[in-house]
Specification:
With 94 residues, the chain is mainly α. Helix content is 74%, strand content 0%.
């Protein structure tokens, strides 16, 4: 997806980071880059708007359901395992 105009941050990168952007998980400089891109690029802005609407809809209808403790524990354990794996991979790469 692209509007055909050159951008400092490519459309593919913006769209790959749109969920992190929506969740506020991107550093300030990255947020500024994405905001600037969205202001310049209609197709990406429409995609962002769609993803934002889906996120709000899911939150509104599913946000109040409690997460089962067992599922939460499994997810947190997996996140920890992936972080350790990434640290080991980075250590070996150095």
């Amino acid at each position: 997806m692209s509007c055909g105009k050159p951008h400092e941050v490519p459309c593919s990168e913006v769209l790959a980071r749109v969920y992190s952007y929506l969740d506020g998980e991107i550093e300030d400089a990255g947020c500024s880059e994405i905001q600037m891109h969205l202001e310049e690029c209609g197709p990406c802005l429409r995609e962002y708007g769609l993803e934002e609407a889906v996120k709000r809809l899911v939150h509104r209808h599913c946000g109040s359901d409690p997460v089962p403790t067992e599922l939460r524990t499994k997810v947190l354990s997996r996140i920890h395992a992936v972080r350790v794996e990434l640290e080991v991979t980075e250590f070996h790469a150095e």
